Structures are given as C-alpha cells and as structure tokens.
Amino acid sequence: MILVTGATGLVGSHLLVKLLQENEVVRAIYREEKSLVAVQNVFKYYNEINLFDKIEWIKADINDVPSLEIAFHNITRVYHCAAFISFDPKDEEQLFKVNIEGTANIVNCCIDFGIDKLCYVSSVAALGEATNSNLIITEETEWNPEKPRNEYAISKYAGEMEVWRGYQEGLKVVIVNPDVIFGYGFPNNGSSSAINAIKKGNPFYTKGKFGIVAVEDLVNCMTKLMNSSISGERYTIVAENITFQEGLNAIADALKLKRPFIYASKGLTSIAWRLDWFLSLLLRKKRILTRLTAKSSHSLAEYDTTKIKTTLGYDFVDMKEYLKKLLINF
C-alpha cells in the first residue's frame, strides 16, 4: 500500500489520480474534512470520480507522531508531498516545523516501519545558487550557506537533509525539485496567484526568469522514479525556463486580457518591497514581496533538466499550449 502526505494539495491530489489509474492501493492523509472537496473536483476534472472512493483516507498530521504511526501501518512506499509554502519571514516558525520537523517525522516513520522507498517533493529553492559566471543551475550546484536565503528555501534544504539522513540509514529515496507548478484546481494557491494577478489587472512585469512545469509531468516523473530501481538521487523537474514577462503575457493572452505593460525595474521593486513591509506592519497582513523575492524576480538563472530527461527519456508538455487548455477551466 502507498501512503501520500499532502494529499489534499495540488501535487498530492493529482498524484492520487495517477496512482489509482495505475491500480495502486492508496492511503492518503488529510487534516480537515472540507479539504476533500477540492480533491474530488480534481478527480471530476479527469472524469475519474469513481476512483476517488477507492482512497483510504486517514486523519493525521505530519507533526503528530502518534497519528502518523497509525497511518504507516501496512505501508510499503511513501510520497511525501506535504509542505508549508510562504515567503513571509513572519512564518519562519511554521515553515521550520512543517518542512523540517514534519519531514524528519516522515523519515523516522519510514525507517521504523521498514518502508521500501520514499519520494520527497522538495523545491528548486533547495538547489544551489547561480553565479555571475554560471547562470545554469543543476542538481550538483553547490549550496552556499553564506548566501542570503529566504526561510522557505532554508526549510526545504533542511528537509532534504533529513531525507539524506534516512538514505544514510538504509532508506531508499528519490527527491524531486520542481519550480512553479501549474495544474487544475486550487485557484487561490501557488501558481494561481499569477493568474489571479492578471485577472485583477496587474500592470507590472520583470524580465527575470523562473521555471514552470505541469503538475501532470511532475507526478509522472515521480511515479516513474518510484517504480524504478533508482535511489539516492534528486532531479530538477522543470519543463521550461521563461521570463516573468513571457509567463504573464501567456496567461493574459489565454484569458484574453490586457498584458502587463509597466516594466518593474530593480529600483522599482526595491521601493515596492519596502512599501510592502511597511503596509504589512501597519495593516498586520502577510508579506507579498520581500527583499529576496524582489531580487529573485530579476534573476536570469536557468534550471538544467538534462538529468531527468536522460534518466527517464522524458519529454515535457508544451507549456504554452498547456496553459491555454488549463485556463479554459480555471
């Protein structure tokens, strides 16, 4: 039996569909009953609602070891998709608790229960950083602890360290490192923020680069890696490297809305993150833009996906066509 954590999120819900289509026996973790509605909608999207009833749901929390131990009974493989995503420095405590302590709990249970293999969904934020002389980031790019990092990146890197600890203790593992993930469902989370920004008439763009990938490609790579003999490896999962301008324009064109038309220079984003900091204090709201996220919006670094393409012989979908189809149903 397979256990999926983070099953009520974007990656976890699409992974459930994929696993059940492959006739796997699946147990999935949830925390709140209402979160299951979004998962049902994903199954409806694939016309696979009949498969939803085959999931064995169990109420548990990755930071609650007793409930995890119950969830791990009779499990052979684990997909750890659960994570907390935030770039607000105020969320440091929760980021570390979920992404580090929670992952440590999963790894410990995998070892204690003799799990065959663990797949950990990490992030490109846990990869090394590009330099002025080398803008290409691979799985081997060195992580420099002296470089300033946001709390989310630190938490995902430390989460990976917990997984590698498990590997050293004999647990078979694979790690995937996606960047921005697009997929059906969850219109208020993750990559959907860019779509919502365009719908609200956001006029700003930058020319920095980021990686995008379809959630279907991500879960395909995950299941292929788990069904292989591969262990002790991590893979960057990115379909394309595009500029923020290109990404926002593609979304605007698909929605038949106005493209962003004001270039947000480094100077403008520098002012913007300071203003956002002030408003967050004044209005007690979450940060939208920080100094580090403002800086990254101008980065020209690209992610190299040679390793996953070579290992699996995998071809990613055309993201422009994918976005067109996705936004019809957004």
TrEMBL record:
**Source taxon at top rank:** Bacteria
Task: Supply one GO CC term from the record.
Answer: cytoplasm
| GO MF annotation terms | aldehyde dehydrogenase (NAD+) activity
Q: Where is the NAD-dependent epimerase/dehydratase domain?
A: 2-237
Instruction: Return the PANTHER family for the record.
Output: NAD(P)-BINDING DOMAIN-CONTAINING PROTEIN-RELATED, PROTEIN YEEZ
Protein name per its UniProtKB record: Nucleoside-diphosphate-sugar epimerase
What species was this sequence derived from? Flavobacterium haoranii
